[in-house]
Amino acid sequence: MSSLRRTLLTALPKVPLSRLCGLITSTPLPRWLRPRLFGWFARRYGAALEDVPNDLRDYRSLQAFFRRALRPDARPIADAALVWPCDGRIVTAGPVRDGRIPQVKGNDYQLADLLGDEPLAKQLDGGSQVTIYLAPGDYHRVHAPFAGVVEKVTPLRGTLFPVNPPAVACIDRLFVRNARHVFHCRTATGAPAAIVMVGAYNVGDTVVTVDGGELQKGQEVGQFGFGSTVVAVIGPGGGAFRELAPEHRVRMGEAAD
């Protein structure tokens, strides 16, 4: 089954289909239809409507609903050095060894390939990483897991494989093959760090909301449509993410160290 899935996903025209999906989901909807459609979506994918700050009729399109903000008090930022950058489920969490990150058990990839930056990968080697999958029903905004500085943001071209667990299990080096945005950061303690927003099949264009300057812990840095994956990496001396088992659910702003 996994080999058949791999063949089909490889052959699928992922980027054109994802762009088409983005156009469709960005189409304005009649106001009367919006609560019905978004309510169905919430029931189907488990979106938490109690966290939505606005009337559902105020979201002009499905894409606008995907990118919704939260109520101001929905995700308090913990008094900790590190917090989770998004809502979602753990893919992997633990140390970075020999410049590699596990994608799933027994299958890993080079950190330098993910970042597109060999010198930065060397600085981060020996540090800590967390990879989090955002399902379609999750809150789709990404926040800083630490206080510090964004030095630059680099977009890297690639394809758009799905990033759901079955695809991650069967597509080798999936995260380094997909399009992504790499935030080159430095924590408040001076340690090098990176936040990587990995694009995915049927995800609309990634929106970067912070492309440089001072970064507050819990500050929004970008937005996804539909769902995707975030990889956060901190170099030695910058703290460490808590090691959690795959599928463990986390929420943005909760203590992560």
Protein model, in words:
The chain is α+β, with helices and mostly antiparallel strands and 257 residues long. It has two domains: 2-66, no CATH class; 88-250, no CATH class. It has eight helices and 13 strands. The strands form three sheets. It has an eight-stranded antiparallel beta sheet with strand order 10-6-7-8-12-4-1-13, covered by helices on one side. A three-stranded antiparallel beta sheet has the order 5-11-9, with no helix packed on it. It has a two-stranded antiparallel ribbon with strand order 2-3. Strand 7 and strand 8 (192-198) form a beta hairpin. The longest helix has 12 residues, at 14-25. The radius of gyration is 18 Å and the shape is globular.
How are the SSEs placed, and which strands pair?
Blueprint: H1 2-11, H2 14-25, H3 34-45, H4 62-66, E1 88-95, E2 100-104, E3 107-110, H5 111-115, H6 118-124, E4 128-134, E5 141-143, E6 148-156, H7 165-170, H8 174-177, E7 180-187, E8 192-198, E9 207-208, E10 213-215, E11 220-223, E12 228-234, E13 249-250
Antiparallel strand pairs: 1-4, 1-13, 2-3, 4-12, 5-11, 6-7, 6-10, 7-8, 8-12, 9-11
> Which structural class do you get from the secondary structure elements?
alpha+beta
Rounded average pLDDT:
91
Give a quick account of the main beta sheet: strands, pairing sense, barrel closure: 8 strands, antiparallel
* β-strand amount: 25-35%
**Strand order, sheet with most strands:** 10-6-7-8-12-4-1-13
Query: What's the domain count?
Result: 2
Total E-strand runs: 13
| Oligomeric category | single chain
Number of distinct helices: 8
What is the helical fraction, as a range of percent?
A: 10-25%
Low-pLDDT segments: none
Distance between the termini: 37 Å
Radius of gyration, whole Å: 18 Å
What best-fitting shape do the alpha-carbon axes yield?
globular
SSE pattern, N- to C-terminal: HHHHEEEHHEEEHHEEEEEEE
